[in-house]
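tool_call predict_complex ligand=nicotinamide-adenine-dinucleotide
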Amino acid sequence: MKVNIVGAGNIAEYHARSIKALGHELGLVADFNEKSAQALADKYGCRWTTSTDSLLSEQADLVTVAVPNAYHYDVAAAAVKAGHAVLCEKPMTRSSENSRQLVELVKQTGRPFFVGYMKRLHPTVQKFADYSSRIGQMRSGLVRVYHPMPDASWPMIANHLALSPGSPMDGVFVNSGSHMLDLLLQFAGPVKKVLAARMQYHDGCYPKVDKMAHALLEMENGATVTVECGWLSLFGVGRRENGWDELIELRGDEGLATLHTTWWERPQFESPVAELWDESLKAKESFNAGMVDNFQEEYRLIEKALSGESVPLATVEEAFAVDQLIDDIFAAAGIHSQKEGVVTQ
Ligand SMILES: NC(=O)c1ccc[n+]([C@@H]2O[C@H](COP(=O)([O-])OP(=O)(O)OC[C@H]3O[C@@H](n4cnc5c(N)ncnc54)[C@H](O)[C@@H]3O)[C@@H](O)[C@H]2O)c1
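tool_result ok
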């Protein structure tokens, strides 16, 4: 499989590494920052360009969109229009309206389109699907996403935001929470209504991005789900006591299914853990498939999908559902753009 990448920043490194590790061809990387494009190309032995158009005019089996969220829509739509199969980083776009347009475009062109919610691909997370189907009538749920953020990082974030409306910092809820909302929708079904939401901000950042987000959801299955996300300077909390406190819990009449997910940048050091409390057996079962690099899993499954196999990669419609939920939660908090003060596309 030949893959070309648009965006040669932080996450592109994980994509390039996985493409090469699996023996695929990394053809070309494009970034409007020449130094970034050249550095990634030099490290992984491929060609580079500053022109996304020239990348899109080249044949490839897949184009990976690894630019900041603000540019996902433009780049992904251009790639689909140029006839490419696309892997778009998450969240798919920064507005449900843009995501709806992508759904239409993908439908019209019939090109394969995958979204980078790669946490769902881990075998332990797939096992959680089984656990969550064994809790009986779901009554309640919890989505928790706390990531360690040193206080000293906020001036740097404020600077980033002030310099560029296309900063990859979109707040804890979008940057960190979107993966877990994808898992919630996958395992607990659709949301009927957002009952309440609140965002809290860090002083001194403009445009503002949330550092804490809370939401209360009513699911179509009747359950109530609490969502809590935060970037706080707590470094010893969470299952691994490394500050990464990320879990999804689904509680029913017959059991409790729990999934602890892991720090995205440590796929080779940490593995998720799934647990099921079974009330009828009065016993707890747990599952840990060990270390699986979610980024490699993404490309392994894309290759299968391109040859017609059915795989659990996030579809354009599923990613649209996440973006719709994100917009609904912001609206319930009385905020109509993901970065307050910035008009989203
Ligand atoms: N899957 C995950 O767990 C995960 C983790 C981190 C980041 N991400 C996602 O990866 C994406 C990129 O984040 P990042 O941290 O790598 O950002 P980054 O700022 O480190 O890199 C983005 C790069 O894209 C370039 N760029 C911006 N707009 C461009 C355009 N229109 N055309 C060409 N190049 C362009 C920038 O110059 C920069 O080099 C975001 O969507 C983010 O949400 C996903």
